Amino acid sequence: MSDPRPNFQQASPAVFQAMLALEEQSRQSTIPATIRQLVKIRVSQINGCAYCLNMHSPEARHAGVSQQQLDVLAAWRESPAFDARERAALGWAEALTRIEATGAPDADYTAIAAQFDEREQVELSLIIVATNGWNRLVVGFRSTHELRQKENAA
């Protein structure tokens, strides 16, 4: 195991506060909570951020995301469980998260432009940017999530 890494929240409270402000702004968007949560989870899946997956999965269920959607989210392109707006948002989330490989393709932009107005496009992009930022801090500094008690324990 590697040497312990600093707790980024304690090491630089100002950076943490800036990230919280970015997060708060993303929560003020007009993007529906279900889409916000699906995007946060998909971005966190791509980035391998267990901390954020652990946080956003219960939040998604609370917001009304179905368990079926959560179960198949990693394979959303092959599943009929997502509507056109959700598909456009997820495609854009993947494109921006993997921007070094995708360059934010016109096809993905065209899909969000057909489903979201200009303000929503920017707000959706901010949600993606904020989630990627959190993922990079959490994964980079090896933050770990708490274990939940097993459900259905005898």
Quick overview of this protein structure:
The protein is mostly helical and 154 residues long. The chain has helices spanning 8-11, 13-27, 33-47, 50-63, 67-72, 84-97, 99-102, 106-115, 118-140.
Question: What features would you highlight for this structure?
Answer:
0% strand; globular; 9 helices; mainly alpha; AhpD-like; 154 residues
Molecular structure report:
There is one protein chain. The chain has a single domain (32-140), classed as AhpD-like, CATH 1.20.1290.10. The model has no long low-confidence stretch (mean pLDDT 93). The chain is built from nine helices and no strands. It is 68% helix and 0% strand. 27% of the residues are buried. By secondary structure, it is mainly α. The chain is globular, with a radius of gyration of 16 Å. The N and C termini lie far apart (34 Å). Helix 2 runs antiparallel to helix 9 (118-140), helix 3 (33-47) packs antiparallel against helix 4 and helix 3 (33-47) runs parallel beside helix 9.
The number of domains is 1
CATH class wording: Mainly Alpha
> Mind telling me the CATH superfamily name?
AhpD-like
β-strand percent reads under 5%
Question: Uncertain spans, ≥5 residues at pLDDT below 50?
Answer: none
GO molecular function: peroxiredoxin activity
InterPro entries: AhpD-like, AhpD_core, CMD-like
Protein name: Carboxymuconolactone decarboxylase family protein
Pfam family, one: CMD
Write the layout of secondary structure elements.
Layout: H1 8-11, H2 13-27, H3 33-47, H4 50-63, H5 67-72, H6 84-97, H7 99-102, H8 106-115, H9 118-140
